[in-house]
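The data layer described in this paper is built around a simple, fixed record for each protein. Because each token names a local backbone shape, the row as a whole describes the fold. We quote a single record here, exactly as it is kept in our systems:

***
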Amino acid sequence: MSLVKVSGNASGTGIFTIASPNSNTDRTLTLPDATGTAVLDTATQTLTNKTLGSGLVMSVSAITAGTAVASTSGTSIDFTGIPSWVKRITVAMQTVSTNGSSNYLIRIGNTTVTSSGYASVMNYVNPGANSCTGSADSTGFLLTKDINSGTAFTAIATIVLQTSGFYVSTFVGNNGVNGAGFFGSGLLNLGSTLDRVRITTVNGTDTFDAGSINILYE
């Protein structure tokens, strides 16, 4: 669902709910203090063919959730078909683990997944050992360090289109209660608009054996 908020008019604030914000059909609204019908563009979520009343302001927020994938098999989890208008992707990982000790990372791409050119740095904080260390990677947005087989990893990673072709990432995660914390950021000049996200490991051969992963985009 998407909320359209109309404010700043003489009659106060109106809240309208639009079903299926990413459908292929236009959605129409009747706005207070404005004449005619407002047509909301399906892809860019912009208001067109509309003269608003004096002082009327309209804002739109549409967040689309993907289909959660059980990370219980395979060497990578892919989300494809991301629309070209998307400016921000959130990757949500819930108690994910693998059968090996290769660190986790996220890769993005257009048609194919890009595995080079990343400027990625992550930090690893271990409260029990009163220590902090870090690592860098150029093959993806790095998420972990010194991960072990069967370790349950939970994280939120955000990937944002900063300007044409350039994607900036940031994340925070942990490996369970009383465990270690992970955080970091990265940059990639993809040179095009992404249409896919992959969650995998550095060596690309460890197999996922627990957890769930999903994406949200807007």
Summary: The chain has two domains: 2-62, 64-217.
